[in-house]
Amino acid sequence: MFAVLKNLGWFFKQEKKRYLVGLFLLIICGVIELLPPLLLGNAIDDIVTSTITWASLTRYLLLILGIVAVVYAATYVWMHRLFGGANLVERLLRTRYMNHLLGMLPPFFERNRTGDLMAKATNDLRSVAATAGFGMLVLTDSSVFLFTVLFAMGFLVSWKLTLAAILPMPIIAIGMVIYGRAIHKRYTLAQDAFGVMNDQVLESVAGVRVVRAYVQERADQKRFQDITDDVYRKNLAVAKVDALFEPTINFSIGLSYVIGLSYGVYLVFQNEITLGNLVAFNMYLGMMIWPMFAIGELINIMQRGGASLDRVNETLKTPPDVTDPEQPETPAVPNSIVFSNVTFRYPSSSADNLKDISFTLNKGQTLGVVGRTGSGKSTLLKQLLHEYPTGSGEIRFDGVPIEQLTLDHLYSWIGYVPQEQILFSKTVRENIQFGKKDASDALIMEAIATAAFDQDLSTLSDGLDTLVGEKGVALSGGQKQRVSLARAFISDPEILILDDALSAVDARTEARIIDNIRTKRAGKTTLISTHRLSAVQHADWIIVLEEGRIVEQGRHEELLAMNGWYREQYDRQQLENKLTSEEVS
Questions:
Q1: In this structure, are residues 305 and 127 in contact, taking their beta carbons and an 8 Å threshold?
Q2: CA dist., res. 483 & res. 476, Å (int)
Q3: Mind listing the pLDDT tens digit for each residue in 293-321?
Q4: What's the CA gap between 291 and 352, in Å, rounded?
Q5: Distance CA 93, CA 126 (A)
Q6: pTM score
Q7: Is 88 left (phi over 0), alpha (psi -120 to 50) or beta?
Q8: Where is the ABC transmembrane type-1 domain (predicted)?
Q9: In sequence order, which residues have a C-beta less than 8 Å from that of residue 477 and are 6 or more positions away?
Q10: N-terminal to C-terminal alpha carbon distance within the chain
Q11: Closest CA to 282 of 261, 301, 265
Q12: Residues forming a β-bridge with 497
Protein backbone atom coordinates (compact mmCIF):
# COMPACT_ATOMS: atom_id res chain seq x y z
CA MET A 1 0.00 0.00 0.00
CA PHE A 2 2.77 2.44 0.86
CA ALA A 3 4.78 1.66 -2.28
CA VAL A 4 3.52 4.94 -3.75
CA LEU A 5 5.27 6.88 -0.95
CA LYS A 6 8.47 4.95 -1.61
CA ASN A 7 8.23 5.75 -5.31
CA LEU A 8 7.76 9.43 -4.43
CA GLY A 9 10.72 9.35 -2.06
CA TRP A 10 12.80 11.49 -4.44
CA PHE A 11 10.21 14.29 -4.10
CA PHE A 12 9.89 14.07 -0.31
CA LYS A 13 13.68 14.19 -0.05
CA GLN A 14 13.79 17.21 -2.36
CA GLU A 15 11.05 19.01 -0.39
CA LYS A 16 12.20 17.74 3.03
CA LYS A 17 11.95 21.13 4.75
CA ARG A 18 8.42 21.75 3.45
CA TYR A 19 7.12 18.41 4.73
CA LEU A 20 9.02 18.48 8.04
CA VAL A 21 7.49 21.87 8.89
CA GLY A 22 4.03 20.86 7.68
CA LEU A 23 3.91 17.51 9.47
CA PHE A 24 5.45 18.94 12.66
CA LEU A 25 2.75 21.63 12.88
CA LEU A 26 0.06 19.07 12.03
CA ILE A 27 1.22 16.89 14.95
CA ILE A 28 1.45 19.91 17.28
CA CYS A 29 -2.14 20.84 16.37
CA GLY A 30 -3.24 17.30 17.16
CA VAL A 31 -1.56 17.40 20.57
CA ILE A 32 -2.93 20.86 21.45
CA GLU A 33 -6.46 19.80 20.45
CA LEU A 34 -6.34 17.25 23.28
CA LEU A 35 -6.34 20.05 25.87
CA PRO A 36 -9.93 21.44 25.53
CA PRO A 37 -11.63 18.11 26.50
CA LEU A 38 -9.30 17.86 29.52
CA LEU A 39 -10.09 21.45 30.55
CA LEU A 40 -13.82 20.82 30.09
CA GLY A 41 -13.62 17.65 32.20
CA ASN A 42 -11.82 19.54 34.99
CA ALA A 43 -14.45 22.30 34.81
CA ILE A 44 -17.25 19.74 35.15
CA ASP A 45 -15.54 18.16 38.15
CA ASP A 46 -15.22 21.65 39.73
CA ILE A 47 -18.94 22.19 39.16
CA VAL A 48 -19.83 18.78 40.68
CA THR A 49 -17.67 19.48 43.72
CA SER A 50 -18.94 23.11 43.92
CA THR A 51 -15.38 24.51 43.75
CA ILE A 52 -15.92 26.46 40.50
CA THR A 53 -15.34 30.25 40.69
CA TRP A 54 -15.66 33.09 38.18
CA ALA A 55 -11.88 33.36 38.10
CA SER A 56 -11.37 29.65 37.34
CA LEU A 57 -14.20 29.68 34.76
CA THR A 58 -12.63 32.71 33.04
CA ARG A 59 -9.25 30.95 33.05
CA TYR A 60 -10.79 27.86 31.42
CA LEU A 61 -12.49 29.98 28.74
CA LEU A 62 -9.38 32.05 27.97
CA LEU A 63 -7.23 28.90 27.72
CA ILE A 64 -9.70 27.31 25.29
CA LEU A 65 -9.85 30.50 23.16
CA GLY A 66 -6.05 30.70 23.14
CA ILE A 67 -5.81 27.07 22.02
CA VAL A 68 -8.29 27.76 19.19
CA ALA A 69 -6.22 30.74 17.98
CA VAL A 70 -2.96 28.76 18.02
CA VAL A 71 -4.55 25.83 16.22
CA TYR A 72 -6.02 28.21 13.59
CA ALA A 73 -2.63 29.77 12.80
CA ALA A 74 -0.76 26.45 12.78
CA THR A 75 -3.43 24.82 10.59
CA TYR A 76 -3.05 27.56 7.97
CA VAL A 77 0.70 26.93 7.76
CA TRP A 78 0.57 23.12 7.59
CA MET A 79 -2.23 23.14 5.02
CA HIS A 80 -0.25 25.57 2.88
CA ARG A 81 2.83 23.35 3.14
CA LEU A 82 1.20 19.99 2.50
CA PHE A 83 -1.26 20.96 -0.22
CA GLY A 84 1.28 23.28 -1.80
CA GLY A 85 3.52 20.22 -2.02
CA ALA A 86 0.73 18.37 -3.84
CA ASN A 87 0.56 21.09 -6.49
CA LEU A 88 4.34 21.10 -6.77
CA VAL A 89 4.70 17.35 -7.31
CA GLU A 90 1.93 17.45 -9.91
CA ARG A 91 3.77 20.21 -11.77
CA LEU A 92 7.11 18.39 -11.58
CA LEU A 93 5.65 15.06 -12.71
CA ARG A 94 3.68 16.67 -15.51
CA THR A 95 6.80 18.48 -16.73
CA ARG A 96 8.83 15.26 -16.54
CA TYR A 97 6.05 13.38 -18.31
CA MET A 98 5.79 15.95 -21.10
CA ASN A 99 9.56 16.08 -21.57
CA HIS A 100 9.57 12.28 -21.80
CA LEU A 101 6.84 12.32 -24.46
CA LEU A 102 8.74 14.95 -26.45
CA GLY A 103 11.77 12.67 -26.41
CA MET A 104 9.84 9.70 -27.74
CA LEU A 105 9.92 8.72 -31.41
CA PRO A 106 7.13 7.37 -33.69
CA PRO A 107 7.40 3.69 -32.57
CA PHE A 108 6.36 4.73 -29.05
CA PHE A 109 3.23 6.52 -30.28
CA GLU A 110 2.38 3.58 -32.51
CA ARG A 111 2.26 1.41 -29.39
CA ASN A 112 0.39 3.86 -27.14
CA ARG A 113 -3.00 5.48 -27.62
CA THR A 114 -3.09 9.28 -27.47
CA GLY A 115 -6.20 9.27 -25.28
CA ASP A 116 -4.54 7.02 -22.71
CA LEU A 117 -1.43 9.22 -22.64
CA MET A 118 -3.68 12.23 -21.99
CA ALA A 119 -5.52 10.39 -19.22
CA LYS A 120 -2.21 9.74 -17.50
CA ALA A 121 -1.28 13.43 -17.82
CA THR A 122 -4.55 14.54 -16.20
CA ASN A 123 -6.49 12.11 -13.98
CA ASP A 124 -3.56 9.93 -12.98
CA LEU A 125 -1.24 12.80 -12.08
CA ARG A 126 -4.00 14.42 -10.03
CA SER A 127 -4.38 11.18 -8.07
CA VAL A 128 -0.63 11.09 -7.44
CA ALA A 129 -0.71 14.74 -6.34
CA ALA A 130 -3.54 13.97 -3.91
CA THR A 131 -1.30 11.30 -2.36
CA ALA A 132 1.43 13.88 -1.72
CA GLY A 133 -1.03 16.33 -0.13
CA PHE A 134 -4.19 14.86 1.35
CA GLY A 135 -2.47 11.47 1.57
CA MET A 136 0.19 12.80 3.95
CA LEU A 137 -2.56 14.43 6.03
CA VAL A 138 -4.55 11.21 6.47
CA LEU A 139 -1.36 9.21 7.02
CA THR A 140 -0.44 11.46 9.94
CA ASP A 141 -3.96 11.65 11.35
CA SER A 142 -4.55 7.90 11.06
CA SER A 143 -1.29 7.09 12.83
CA VAL A 144 0.28 9.84 14.99
CA PHE A 145 -2.94 11.65 15.88
CA LEU A 146 -4.81 8.37 16.49
CA PHE A 147 -2.14 7.10 18.89
CA THR A 148 -1.93 10.52 20.56
CA VAL A 149 -5.67 10.39 21.29
CA LEU A 150 -5.35 6.82 22.53
CA PHE A 151 -2.45 7.86 24.74
CA ALA A 152 -4.50 10.73 26.21
CA MET A 153 -7.46 8.43 26.81
CA GLY A 154 -5.27 5.85 28.51
CA PHE A 155 -3.04 8.08 30.63
CA LEU A 156 -5.36 11.00 31.36
CA VAL A 157 -8.59 9.02 31.88
CA SER A 158 -8.42 5.20 32.19
CA TRP A 159 -6.49 2.43 30.50
CA LYS A 160 -9.23 -0.05 31.35
CA LEU A 161 -11.88 2.03 29.60
CA THR A 162 -9.57 2.73 26.62
CA LEU A 163 -8.73 -0.95 26.04
CA ALA A 164 -12.41 -1.85 26.20
CA ALA A 165 -13.41 0.90 23.76
CA ILE A 166 -10.87 -0.08 21.09
CA LEU A 167 -11.92 -3.73 20.93
CA PRO A 168 -13.84 -3.16 17.61
CA MET A 169 -10.74 -1.71 15.87
CA PRO A 170 -9.60 -5.06 14.35
CA ILE A 171 -12.80 -5.01 12.32
CA ILE A 172 -11.58 -1.82 10.67
CA ALA A 173 -8.11 -3.24 10.04
CA ILE A 174 -9.41 -6.39 8.36
CA GLY A 175 -11.93 -4.43 6.28
CA MET A 176 -9.29 -1.93 5.12
CA VAL A 177 -6.95 -4.67 3.85
CA ILE A 178 -9.74 -6.34 1.86
CA TYR A 179 -11.15 -3.09 0.50
CA GLY A 180 -7.68 -1.70 -0.34
CA ARG A 181 -6.79 -4.60 -2.62
CA ALA A 182 -10.11 -4.33 -4.42
CA ILE A 183 -9.77 -0.55 -4.85
CA HIS A 184 -6.30 -0.85 -6.47
CA LYS A 185 -7.45 -3.43 -8.98
CA ARG A 186 -10.75 -1.75 -9.88
CA TYR A 187 -9.29 1.76 -10.03
CA THR A 188 -6.61 0.63 -12.49
CA LEU A 189 -9.32 -0.81 -14.76
CA ALA A 190 -11.36 2.40 -14.44
CA GLN A 191 -8.40 4.58 -15.43
CA ASP A 192 -7.64 2.33 -18.41
CA ALA A 193 -11.27 2.69 -19.52
CA PHE A 194 -11.04 6.47 -19.14
CA GLY A 195 -8.01 6.43 -21.46
CA VAL A 196 -9.98 4.48 -24.07
CA MET A 197 -12.80 7.02 -23.82
CA ASN A 198 -10.35 9.88 -24.27
CA ASP A 199 -8.99 8.23 -27.39
CA GLN A 200 -12.48 7.79 -28.83
CA VAL A 201 -13.32 11.46 -28.21
CA LEU A 202 -10.12 12.57 -29.97
CA GLU A 203 -10.86 10.37 -32.98
CA SER A 204 -14.46 11.56 -33.20
CA VAL A 205 -13.57 15.24 -32.98
CA ALA A 206 -10.65 14.98 -35.40
CA GLY A 207 -12.68 12.93 -37.88
CA VAL A 208 -16.00 14.75 -37.51
CA ARG A 209 -16.08 15.73 -41.19
CA VAL A 210 -15.61 12.15 -42.34
CA VAL A 211 -18.20 10.94 -39.82
CA ARG A 212 -20.75 13.41 -41.20
CA ALA A 213 -19.83 12.76 -44.82
CA TYR A 214 -20.59 9.05 -44.40
CA VAL A 215 -23.67 9.74 -42.23
CA GLN A 216 -22.15 7.80 -39.34
CA GLU A 217 -23.24 10.14 -36.53
CA ARG A 218 -25.60 7.60 -34.98
CA ALA A 219 -23.04 4.80 -35.21
CA ASP A 220 -20.39 7.05 -33.65
CA GLN A 221 -22.81 8.05 -30.88
CA LYS A 222 -23.60 4.39 -30.24
CA ARG A 223 -19.90 3.52 -30.10
CA PHE A 224 -19.25 6.41 -27.69
CA GLN A 225 -22.25 5.39 -25.58
CA ASP A 226 -20.87 1.86 -25.26
CA ILE A 227 -17.50 3.22 -24.16
CA THR A 228 -19.00 5.65 -21.62
CA ASP A 229 -21.17 2.83 -20.27
CA ASP A 230 -18.01 0.78 -19.77
CA VAL A 231 -16.33 3.72 -17.98
CA TYR A 232 -19.45 4.14 -15.83
CA ARG A 233 -19.57 0.45 -14.89
CA LYS A 234 -15.90 0.36 -13.93
CA ASN A 235 -16.12 3.56 -11.90
CA LEU A 236 -19.27 2.25 -10.26
CA ALA A 237 -17.33 -0.87 -9.29
CA VAL A 238 -14.80 1.42 -7.58
CA ALA A 239 -17.61 3.36 -5.88
CA LYS A 240 -19.18 0.14 -4.55
CA VAL A 241 -15.98 -0.75 -2.72
CA ASP A 242 -15.44 2.87 -1.72
CA ALA A 243 -18.92 2.96 -0.19
CA LEU A 244 -18.02 0.10 2.17
CA PHE A 245 -15.38 2.14 4.02
CA GLU A 246 -17.68 4.52 5.88
CA PRO A 247 -20.30 1.94 7.06
CA THR A 248 -17.54 -0.34 8.34
CA ILE A 249 -15.94 2.51 10.27
CA ASN A 250 -19.31 3.81 11.54
CA PHE A 251 -20.21 0.34 12.78
CA SER A 252 -16.90 0.02 14.64
CA ILE A 253 -17.15 3.51 16.12
CA GLY A 254 -20.74 2.83 17.20
CA LEU A 255 -19.57 -0.28 19.04
CA SER A 256 -16.80 1.76 20.68
CA TYR A 257 -19.34 4.34 21.91
CA VAL A 258 -21.62 1.63 23.32
CA ILE A 259 -18.72 -0.08 25.11
CA GLY A 260 -17.21 3.21 26.29
CA LEU A 261 -20.47 4.57 27.67
CA SER A 262 -21.58 1.31 29.32
CA TYR A 263 -18.26 0.47 30.89
CA GLY A 264 -17.59 4.13 31.69
CA VAL A 265 -20.80 4.44 33.72
CA TYR A 266 -19.83 1.30 35.58
CA LEU A 267 -16.40 2.77 36.42
CA VAL A 268 -18.02 6.01 37.60
CA PHE A 269 -20.26 4.05 39.99
CA GLN A 270 -17.20 2.16 41.16
CA ASN A 271 -15.49 5.54 41.80
CA GLU A 272 -12.59 4.57 39.53
CA ILE A 273 -13.15 7.63 37.33
CA THR A 274 -15.06 10.89 37.80
CA LEU A 275 -17.99 12.18 35.79
CA GLY A 276 -15.65 14.79 34.26
CA ASN A 277 -13.31 11.98 33.22
CA LEU A 278 -16.20 10.20 31.49
CA VAL A 279 -17.20 13.38 29.60
CA ALA A 280 -13.56 13.97 28.57
CA PHE A 281 -13.26 10.34 27.50
CA ASN A 282 -16.33 10.58 25.29
CA MET A 283 -14.98 13.76 23.75
CA TYR A 284 -11.72 11.94 23.03
CA LEU A 285 -13.73 9.09 21.59
CA GLY A 286 -15.44 11.62 19.31
CA MET A 287 -12.02 12.94 18.28
CA MET A 288 -11.14 9.40 17.23
CA ILE A 289 -13.89 9.42 14.59
CA TRP A 290 -11.79 11.36 12.08
CA PRO A 291 -8.64 9.24 12.56
CA MET A 292 -10.80 6.16 12.04
CA PHE A 293 -12.19 7.63 8.83
CA ALA A 294 -8.65 8.69 7.95
CA ILE A 295 -7.62 5.03 7.97
CA GLY A 296 -10.23 4.34 5.29
CA GLU A 297 -9.25 7.45 3.32
CA LEU A 298 -5.59 6.49 3.66
CA ILE A 299 -6.16 3.05 2.15
CA ASN A 300 -8.34 4.55 -0.58
CA ILE A 301 -6.05 7.37 -1.59
CA MET A 302 -2.85 5.32 -1.37
CA GLN A 303 -4.30 2.60 -3.57
CA ARG A 304 -5.58 5.12 -6.10
CA GLY A 305 -2.30 7.03 -6.05
CA GLY A 306 -0.33 3.79 -6.34
CA ALA A 307 -2.40 2.59 -9.30
CA SER A 308 -2.04 5.96 -11.03
CA LEU A 309 1.69 6.22 -10.35
CA ASP A 310 2.18 2.71 -11.72
CA ARG A 311 0.47 3.79 -14.94
CA VAL A 312 2.53 6.98 -15.21
CA ASN A 313 5.79 5.18 -14.41
CA GLU A 314 4.97 2.60 -17.05
CA THR A 315 5.28 5.42 -19.58
CA LEU A 316 8.19 7.20 -17.89
CA LYS A 317 10.23 4.00 -17.72
CA THR A 318 9.78 3.29 -21.43
CA PRO A 319 13.20 3.92 -22.99
CA PRO A 320 13.48 5.75 -26.34
CA ASP A 321 13.66 3.44 -29.33
CA VAL A 322 16.74 5.37 -30.48
CA THR A 323 19.27 6.63 -27.94
CA ASP A 324 22.21 8.99 -28.29
CA PRO A 325 25.69 7.43 -28.41
CA GLU A 326 27.90 7.64 -25.32
CA GLN A 327 30.75 9.20 -27.32
CA PRO A 328 29.09 11.06 -30.20
CA GLU A 329 30.83 12.58 -33.18
CA THR A 330 29.82 16.08 -34.28
CA PRO A 331 30.82 16.99 -37.84
CA ALA A 332 30.13 20.66 -38.46
CA VAL A 333 28.49 20.27 -41.87
CA PRO A 334 27.13 17.18 -43.67
CA ASN A 335 29.24 17.39 -46.83
CA SER A 336 27.89 14.04 -48.04
CA ILE A 337 25.11 11.55 -47.35
CA VAL A 338 25.88 7.93 -48.17
CA PHE A 339 23.46 4.99 -48.13
CA SER A 340 25.33 1.71 -48.35
CA ASN A 341 23.24 -1.46 -48.77
CA VAL A 342 20.57 -0.18 -46.36
CA THR A 343 17.83 -2.68 -45.53
CA PHE A 344 15.08 -1.66 -43.10
CA ARG A 345 11.89 -3.15 -41.66
CA TYR A 346 9.30 -1.42 -39.50
CA PRO A 347 8.73 -3.16 -36.12
CA SER A 348 5.13 -3.88 -37.12
CA SER A 349 6.02 -5.19 -40.59
CA SER A 350 6.55 -8.82 -41.57
CA ALA A 351 8.71 -8.00 -44.63
CA ASP A 352 11.58 -5.62 -45.39
CA ASN A 353 10.33 -2.16 -46.36
CA LEU A 354 13.66 -1.10 -47.87
CA LYS A 355 16.09 -3.51 -49.54
CA ASP A 356 19.75 -2.90 -50.42
CA ILE A 357 19.44 0.87 -50.91
CA SER A 358 22.72 2.49 -52.01
CA PHE A 359 23.44 6.00 -53.27
CA THR A 360 25.65 8.99 -52.54
CA LEU A 361 24.44 12.58 -52.27
CA ASN A 362 26.98 15.38 -51.96
CA LYS A 363 26.44 18.79 -50.41
CA GLY A 364 24.51 21.12 -52.71
CA GLN A 365 22.89 18.32 -54.71
CA THR A 366 19.21 17.48 -55.01
CA LEU A 367 17.88 13.93 -54.84
CA GLY A 368 14.52 12.99 -56.30
CA VAL A 369 12.70 9.89 -54.99
CA VAL A 370 9.81 8.59 -57.07
CA GLY A 371 7.80 5.40 -57.41
CA ARG A 372 4.37 3.89 -57.01
CA THR A 373 2.29 4.40 -53.87
CA GLY A 374 3.69 2.19 -51.10
CA SER A 375 7.04 1.73 -52.85
CA GLY A 376 8.99 3.06 -49.83
CA LYS A 377 9.61 6.73 -50.70
CA SER A 378 8.66 8.12 -47.28
CA THR A 379 10.41 5.23 -45.52
CA LEU A 380 13.65 6.05 -47.32
CA LEU A 381 13.52 9.74 -46.40
CA LYS A 382 12.67 8.95 -42.78
CA GLN A 383 15.90 6.99 -42.47
CA LEU A 384 17.66 10.34 -42.35
CA LEU A 385 15.54 11.32 -39.31
CA HIS A 386 16.70 8.19 -37.41
CA GLU A 387 13.24 7.70 -35.91
CA TYR A 388 13.62 3.91 -35.79
CA PRO A 389 16.55 1.67 -34.90
CA THR A 390 18.66 1.23 -38.02
CA GLY A 391 18.49 -1.96 -40.02
CA SER A 392 21.42 -3.51 -41.83
CA GLY A 393 23.80 -1.50 -43.99
CA GLU A 394 25.14 1.97 -43.23
CA ILE A 395 23.96 5.56 -43.44
CA ARG A 396 26.83 8.03 -43.17
CA PHE A 397 26.91 11.81 -42.88
CA ASP A 398 30.30 13.15 -43.95
CA GLY A 399 31.72 9.70 -43.23
CA VAL A 400 30.17 9.45 -39.74
CA PRO A 401 27.63 6.63 -39.16
CA ILE A 402 24.21 7.96 -38.23
CA GLU A 403 24.37 5.94 -34.99
CA GLN A 404 27.31 8.09 -33.85
CA LEU A 405 25.33 11.34 -34.12
CA THR A 406 23.10 12.68 -31.35
CA LEU A 407 19.52 13.25 -32.45
CA ASP A 408 19.72 16.95 -31.56
CA HIS A 409 22.83 17.40 -33.69
CA LEU A 410 21.27 15.48 -36.57
CA TYR A 411 18.02 17.43 -36.42
CA SER A 412 19.90 20.75 -36.32
CA TRP A 413 20.84 20.09 -39.95
CA ILE A 414 17.40 19.05 -41.16
CA GLY A 415 14.27 20.83 -42.27
CA TYR A 416 11.41 18.38 -42.77
CA VAL A 417 8.01 18.80 -44.42
CA PRO A 418 6.01 15.56 -44.07
CA GLN A 419 3.11 14.33 -46.17
CA GLU A 420 0.61 15.22 -43.44
CA GLN A 421 1.25 18.81 -42.45
CA ILE A 422 0.91 19.66 -38.77
CA LEU A 423 -0.01 23.25 -37.98
CA PHE A 424 -0.54 24.51 -34.45
CA SER A 425 -3.62 26.38 -33.23
CA LYS A 426 -1.82 29.70 -33.52
CA THR A 427 -1.37 32.44 -36.10
CA VAL A 428 0.29 32.06 -39.48
CA ARG A 429 3.21 34.10 -38.13
CA GLU A 430 3.69 31.88 -35.07
CA ASN A 431 3.49 28.71 -37.14
CA ILE A 432 6.22 29.93 -39.47
CA GLN A 433 8.34 31.22 -36.57
CA PHE A 434 8.32 27.67 -35.22
CA GLY A 435 11.13 27.09 -37.71
CA LYS A 436 13.12 30.05 -36.41
CA LYS A 437 12.23 31.63 -33.11
CA ASP A 438 11.67 35.41 -33.13
CA ALA A 439 12.20 35.65 -36.88
CA SER A 440 11.52 39.15 -38.20
CA ASP A 441 8.61 39.93 -40.49
CA ALA A 442 11.10 40.48 -43.33
CA LEU A 443 12.43 36.91 -42.95
CA ILE A 444 8.91 35.57 -42.63
CA MET A 445 7.82 37.31 -45.84
CA GLU A 446 10.89 35.99 -47.64
CA ALA A 447 10.04 32.42 -46.56
CA ILE A 448 6.42 32.98 -47.59
CA ALA A 449 7.51 34.19 -51.05
CA THR A 450 9.78 31.14 -51.43
CA ALA A 451 6.80 28.92 -50.59
CA ALA A 452 4.60 30.85 -53.08
CA PHE A 453 2.19 31.77 -50.31
CA ASP A 454 2.49 35.56 -50.72
CA GLN A 455 -0.57 35.92 -52.95
CA ASP A 456 -2.73 33.83 -50.60
CA LEU A 457 -1.66 35.93 -47.62
CA SER A 458 -3.68 38.89 -48.85
CA THR A 459 -6.85 36.77 -48.88
CA LEU A 460 -6.55 35.94 -45.16
CA SER A 461 -8.64 38.07 -42.82
CA ASP A 462 -5.76 39.21 -40.59
CA GLY A 463 -2.76 38.47 -42.79
CA LEU A 464 0.12 37.02 -40.76
CA ASP A 465 -1.96 37.28 -37.61
CA THR A 466 -4.74 35.04 -38.93
CA LEU A 467 -5.49 32.10 -36.63
CA VAL A 468 -5.20 28.87 -38.61
CA GLY A 469 -7.40 26.85 -36.23
CA GLU A 470 -6.71 23.41 -34.82
CA LYS A 471 -4.43 21.50 -37.19
CA GLY A 472 -4.82 24.35 -39.72
CA VAL A 473 -8.54 23.71 -40.23
CA ALA A 474 -9.06 27.33 -41.43
CA LEU A 475 -6.68 26.83 -44.38
CA SER A 476 -7.01 24.77 -47.54
CA GLY A 477 -4.77 21.77 -48.16
CA GLY A 478 -2.50 23.72 -50.49
CA GLN A 479 -2.26 26.64 -48.06
CA LYS A 480 -1.33 24.30 -45.20
CA GLN A 481 1.41 22.76 -47.34
CA ARG A 482 2.85 26.15 -48.21
CA VAL A 483 2.80 27.40 -44.62
CA SER A 484 4.65 24.19 -43.68
CA LEU A 485 7.13 24.83 -46.50
CA ALA A 486 7.68 28.40 -45.30
CA ARG A 487 8.33 27.06 -41.79
CA ALA A 488 11.04 24.79 -43.19
CA PHE A 489 12.50 27.46 -45.51
CA ILE A 490 12.87 30.06 -42.75
CA SER A 491 15.21 27.78 -40.80
CA ASP A 492 17.48 27.54 -43.90
CA PRO A 493 18.55 23.95 -43.06
CA GLU A 494 21.62 22.22 -44.44
CA ILE A 495 19.36 19.31 -45.49
CA LEU A 496 15.79 19.94 -46.65
CA ILE A 497 13.47 16.92 -46.86
CA LEU A 498 10.20 17.36 -48.78
CA ASP A 499 8.10 14.22 -48.43
CA ASP A 500 5.43 14.62 -51.12
CA ALA A 501 5.05 18.18 -49.81
CA LEU A 502 3.77 19.65 -53.10
CA SER A 503 0.89 17.25 -53.71
CA ALA A 504 -1.85 19.78 -52.86
CA VAL A 505 -0.63 22.65 -55.07
CA ASP A 506 -1.28 23.15 -58.76
CA ALA A 507 1.40 22.63 -61.41
CA ARG A 508 2.10 26.35 -61.87
CA THR A 509 2.56 26.95 -58.14
CA GLU A 510 4.70 23.83 -57.91
CA ALA A 511 6.96 25.10 -60.73
CA ARG A 512 7.34 28.44 -58.93
CA ILE A 513 8.24 26.75 -55.63
CA ILE A 514 10.77 24.46 -57.34
CA ASP A 515 12.40 27.44 -59.06
CA ASN A 516 12.59 29.24 -55.71
CA ILE A 517 14.17 26.20 -54.07
CA ARG A 518 16.81 25.94 -56.82
CA THR A 519 17.64 29.63 -56.40
CA LYS A 520 17.47 30.01 -52.63
CA ARG A 521 19.07 26.67 -51.73
CA ALA A 522 22.05 26.74 -54.03
CA GLY A 523 24.90 24.95 -52.29
CA LYS A 524 22.62 23.07 -49.86
CA THR A 525 21.24 19.54 -49.97
CA THR A 526 17.62 18.82 -50.84
CA LEU A 527 15.66 15.54 -51.00
CA ILE A 528 12.25 15.46 -52.66
CA SER A 529 9.81 12.56 -52.86
CA THR A 530 6.86 13.07 -55.16
CA HIS A 531 4.33 11.50 -57.50
CA ARG A 532 4.67 14.36 -60.02
CA LEU A 533 7.89 13.95 -61.94
CA SER A 534 7.95 17.64 -62.84
CA ALA A 535 9.03 18.33 -59.24
CA VAL A 536 12.27 16.33 -59.64
CA GLN A 537 13.25 16.87 -63.28
CA HIS A 538 15.90 19.31 -62.15
CA ALA A 539 17.38 16.91 -59.54
CA ASP A 540 21.04 15.90 -59.73
CA TRP A 541 20.05 12.28 -59.14
CA ILE A 542 16.72 10.49 -59.24
CA ILE A 543 15.95 7.04 -57.88
CA VAL A 544 12.87 4.98 -58.71
CA LEU A 545 11.63 2.64 -55.98
CA GLU A 546 9.56 -0.51 -56.39
CA GLU A 547 8.64 -2.58 -53.32
CA GLY A 548 11.49 -1.02 -51.36
CA ARG A 549 14.17 -1.59 -54.03
CA ILE A 550 15.86 0.83 -56.40
CA VAL A 551 14.78 -0.36 -59.86
CA GLU A 552 15.99 2.68 -61.82
CA GLN A 553 18.31 5.58 -61.04
CA GLY A 554 20.07 8.39 -62.86
CA ARG A 555 19.39 11.88 -64.19
CA HIS A 556 16.11 12.84 -65.78
CA GLU A 557 17.37 12.35 -69.34
CA GLU A 558 19.04 9.05 -68.47
CA LEU A 559 15.86 7.67 -66.93
CA LEU A 560 13.81 8.68 -69.97
CA ALA A 561 16.28 6.81 -72.16
CA MET A 562 15.78 3.61 -70.12
CA ASN A 563 12.14 3.39 -71.31
CA GLY A 564 11.10 1.95 -67.94
CA TRP A 565 8.56 2.96 -65.30
CA TYR A 566 9.93 6.51 -65.15
CA ARG A 567 9.47 7.05 -68.90
CA GLU A 568 5.99 5.54 -68.82
CA GLN A 569 4.92 7.74 -65.90
CA TYR A 570 6.49 10.85 -67.47
CA ASP A 571 4.66 10.37 -70.79
CA ARG A 572 1.35 9.79 -68.97
CA GLN A 573 1.73 12.96 -66.88
CA GLN A 574 2.75 15.03 -69.92
CA LEU A 575 -0.39 13.86 -71.71
CA GLU A 576 -2.56 14.68 -68.68
CA ASN A 577 -1.03 18.17 -68.48
CA LYS A 578 -1.66 18.72 -72.19
CA LEU A 579 -5.30 17.64 -71.93
CA THR A 580 -5.79 19.85 -68.86
CA SER A 581 -4.31 22.85 -70.69
CA GLU A 582 -6.61 22.28 -73.68
CA GLU A 583 -9.66 22.08 -71.39
CA VAL A 584 -8.70 25.32 -69.67
CA SER A 585 -8.14 27.12 -72.96
A1: yes
A2: 11
A3: 777 777 778 888 888 888 899 899 998 88
A4: 63
A5: 10
A6: 0.75
A7: alpha
A8: 20-304
A9: 504
A10: 78
A11: 261
A12: 416, 527
